[in-house]
Design goal:
Elements (H helix, E strand, L loop, with lengths): L1 H18 L16 E2 L8 E8 L4 E2 L4 E2 L4 E7 L1 H10 L7 E9 L10 E12 L11 E5 L10 E2 L8 H7 L21
Antiparallel strand pairs: 1-9, 2-5, 3-4, 5-6, 6-7, 7-8
Bound molecules: heme C.
Length: about 190
């Protein structure tokens, strides 16, 4: 019981500290060689919405047109989510993934049913690690294929990911919050 109470207090403090005026850095699982680990349990992070990439569109991970439509689920690490929803600012240490799922072949009037997970892209905000990158954002991918995904990923070049986020989401900290219904904030001050 004592342990439980202390964990609750520590958790509460952590969240409070991260949302204070001088925000604390949220932990990010980088390795000594600069790669980042495949995040654990990201499907239990906050799912902020789903978009549909129609068959034939290009998947941003490998730049290839897709043979079957893919759903894209976006998950935000819960502490980053809490700070963003409270303040409107993405905190240092923010982690967001988007996971692709392939769908079964279907006629236009049929239900589009998922078949399997098929790829994972990630962005991380880290002011120390990415001092010069736009928005202090680093972009990664863990493969565009069935599971298992890659265990680690390296920082991707600016032209592959950041350039598009810079061009289209400069007015929202380079993260497309307006595409995700779960990121609509009540107060817009
Ligand atoms: C051609 C433009 C474009 C490129 C290139 C691009 N993105 Fe995005 N990205 C988007 C858009 C638009 C969204 C909004 C959600 C959606 O429609 O999927 C998004 C959303 C995301 C998200 C969810 C958070 C957010 O901003 O909504 C992540 C994570 C992400 N992209 C990572 C990447 C990675 C990693 C790469 C490079 C492999 C990449 N992106 C390349 C346009 C792009």
């Amino acid at each position: 019981m004592k342990i439980l109470v202390w964990s609750a207090i520590l958790l509460a403090c952590g969240t409070a500290a991260a949302s204070a005026e001088d925000p604390a850095k949220l932990p990010v699982p980088f390795n000594a060689d600069g790669t980042v680990n495949l995040p654990q349990n990201y499907r239990q992070w906050v799912n902020v919405g789903t978009t549909l990439l129609p068959k034939g569109e290009v998947n941003i991970i490998d730049g290839q047109p897709i043979a079957a439509s893919e759903y894209i689920d976006t998950y935000v690490e819960p502490q980053s989510f809490a700070v963003y929803m409270e303040t409107g600012i993405w905190p240092d240490g923010t982690q967001i993934v988007k996971e692709f799922t392939a769908t079964q072949d279907a006629a236009p009037d049929e239900v589009l049913v998922e078949s399997h997970y098929t790829g994972l892209a990630m962005l991380i905000k880290d002011t120390e690690r990415f001092p010069a990158e736009t928005g202090h954002l680093g972009y990664f991918n863990f493969g565009h294929h069935s599971e298992p995904y890659e265990r680690t990923a390296s920082l991707l070049p600016r032209e592959q990911c950041s350039s598009c986020h810079e061009a289209l989401a400069a007015d929202q900290q380079f993260i497309f919050a307006d595409h995700h219904i779960g990121l609509q904030r009540k107060s817009t001050e």
